Amino acid sequence: MRLILNSPLDMHLHLRDGDMLQHVAKFSAKDFTGALIMPNLVPPITDIPSLLAYKERILDVMGCEQFTPYMSLFFKSDYKADFLERSRDYITAIKLYPSGVTTNSDGGVEQFDVKKLAPIFEAMSELNIPLCVHGETNGFVMDREKEFGAVYECLAVAFPKLTIIMEHITTRSSAELLKRYENLYATITLHHLLITLDDVAGGLLNPHLFCKPIAKRYEDRDALLELALNANKKVMFGSDSAPHPVSKKECCGCAAGIFSAPIALSALAELFEKHDKLTNLQAFVSDNARDIYKLTPIEKTVILEKKEWIVPATFGDVVPMFAKQTLKWQALSQK
Amino acid sequence: MRLILNSPLDMHLHLRDGDMLQHVAKFSAKDFTGALIMPNLVPPITDIPSLLAYKERILDVMGCEQFTPYMSLFFKSDYKADFLERSRDYITAIKLYPSGVTTNSDGGVEQFDVKKLAPIFEAMSELNIPLCVHGETNGFVMDREKEFGAVYECLAVAFPKLTIIMEHITTRSSAELLKRYENLYATITLHHLLITLDDVAGGLLNPHLFCKPIAKRYEDRDALLELALNANKKVMFGSDSAPHPVSKKECCGCAAGIFSAPIALSALAELFEKHDKLTNLQAFVSDNARDIYKLTPIEKTVILEKKEWIVPATFGDVVPMFAKQTLKWQALSQK
Lengths: 335, 335
Hints:
The structure is a homodimer. By secondary structure, chain A is an alpha/beta fold.
């Protein structure tokens, strides 16, 4: 059996830089026609020359694969309207991180003062630049996303023309919030459709499933599944694939992030098939993102074949999700 | 400044066996006059010859330290009244593990059928053998202890003469439950008085603070603190110090357990002092346990000196709690 996907998109991807970029980019390039590239490098991408140079480095490692890196800027509270206007043609979105909530977010927004930030959000609304948000407070780890809901509501009401993407949502409360405001959208990762905190810390502790936001409860996962499997128009796939070398995972202070890029489409096909929703996969991994971001990606056909394969234990020094496990679908790229 | 503790007791301790026993026992022997030794070896301690042999191995490594290993049997659902009667003189308690909930609990109780187990609990009541319980269900990791509350209630009501010790409680609900039934008591660890899930998984993932039951919320920790700092007569100190070699902690499937034995008294003194409750430490680390278990431990005076020291990064191949951090009190043993 074969499944044909037209121009799959990964709307939340960490490609890193340097050697890691060289190593991981090909996995996304093989299975996707494009991805929204996260800007939380060290230092973060906050100006257009840096952004274009990073884009160039990404394209350099793509070889002959057709792949569009949709670039994002790292939100700074001192951005000015004229800067945004000049930047408009180079960027697909601006990504906002509250300071300190995840990997390399230290330069993010310290105080979420909507009134102070209003000129930026207004300019983004006018320029049709979507705002992507890592929506967590600095509160208790299981409550951070829910607590951030008030900020999303405030933004959605105050800036009705702003397209707001709730990145990698993990809770039932986010799933419900999303439905209440027209200008709220969301990405959902593969792993948050599959795992709960039990998979991270319920048995032995599994650092390779440790991510931010942390996986939550079964009822949270089920709420995300309901959105994704039914290809709700407000949600789209964003892997949040975030590679770390094994030395940063199996250690004393394990970094947050799950490397899912090489297995994302295979595992999604298996999940959607299991729930008898394979026909909705196209919308979840491509069509919804095109509508939300108003993108016209390069046509690229990705064929998935129903054929078991064993995921390697590592790709280089990065341990992927489903390492050493068997997946039922195999992605074969085709231009 | 000096603080004198009379015969401190650690009423929940894992000493392991073989090389690890050789390595860790001296830390408990230095600071405590005795400890309740957990029976979850591989295989578990389920008969008196094994128990006595294990006790002998423990005493062998104590050298000239005065230290009483109070022995416990691993609860099996096929124990008979006459076996318990013959065992009475050799044991201080019987420890019940639901199957699969923590390290080496695989031989534990599969189906918690109170009616079927009633003859054992009745015999224990008659013989005044306390029942220590690892009170977790196989449910969601944050709910397991709370869910087990119903079992505690059932036991407390059905066997009013049975002394039931809720081991290493971690939740507000357990703290409240404890107060409602006369025959319910509890041990509290050092780490559950200090950390929450935020310390384990809120920033970087810290495998050295990963334990079962997992650390919970701030309100849970505060409820435990209220009991311990006020030396509530129903609670006593049990470190649940559980050493694993670093290779079993900083790895893919990290084992549950925090090694706190070498720093437990120091850190407790610092905590009680911080809350201006130093005068209650004696009851929490000794007197309450004597009353609950009706023990008369060997007199041993442990002196704590207000003198900063830096906790070693490792003791052998085991990483202790507070590794490389400074503690304010130092324990000097004295017979």
